[in-house]
Structure formats: C-alpha cells, structure tokens
Write a structure and sequence with these properties.
The protein is mainly beta. It has strands spanning 2-7, 15-22, 26-29, 32-38, 44-48, 50-54, 58-63, 70-71. It has a single domain (2-6, 17-71), classed as Beta Barrel (conserved putative lor/sdh protein from methanococcus maripaludis s2 fold), CATH 2.40.420. It has no helices and 8 strands. Strands 1-2-7-6 form a 4-stranded antiparallel β-sheet, with no helix packed on it. The chain is globular and about 50 Å long.
C-alpha cells in the first residue's frame, strides 16, 4: 500500500493525498468494487470501496479504506 503526498510550492500551497493500493487487490462484484481486509483479530472481511483513478498496476481508493488497514492481495475467487 502506498500513500502519495504532493506539495505544491506556490502562493496557494496545498497538499493532495491519495491512498493507492495494488490493482490486483480489488474484487469487482455486481454490487460494486470490494477489498478483502484483515482486522486485528485476523478475521477477513469483504469491504465496499469507492475507486478513483486507475494508474495501471495501482488504483486510487477514495473511500472505504484507512491507511492502517491490511489487505489481501490477489484474493482467490472463493474468498471474494
């Protein structure tokens, strides 16, 4: 998982943060994109997410995931 920070040094400086994950961690289902996450008790949960930009091997997550969450990369179909 990558967090990208971009700071522009202009009179109106702002910071853009994006939460990027490997594209192969996303499972597309009929009810929308999902991620398999692992919680502190090592339970696997299927969580809905809102996707942003597709950057090839990485995908931007707009909502539904925190930077501290653990993901299952390359989930097998029977898990998702």
């Amino acid at each position: 998982m990558w967090i990208v920070k971009l700071a522009l040094r202009r009179p109106y400086t702002f910071v853009v943060m994006a939460l990027l994950i490997p594209g192969n961690a996303v499972t597309i289902r009929a009810d929308g994109p999902k991620l398999l996450t692992v919680d502190a008790q090592t339970a696997v949960r299927l969580r809905p997410v809102k996707l942003g930009r597709d950057l090839g091997d990485k995908v931007e997550i707009l909502s539904g995931l925190d930077a501290a969450d653990s993901l299952v990369a390359n989930p097998q179909r029977r898990m998702a």
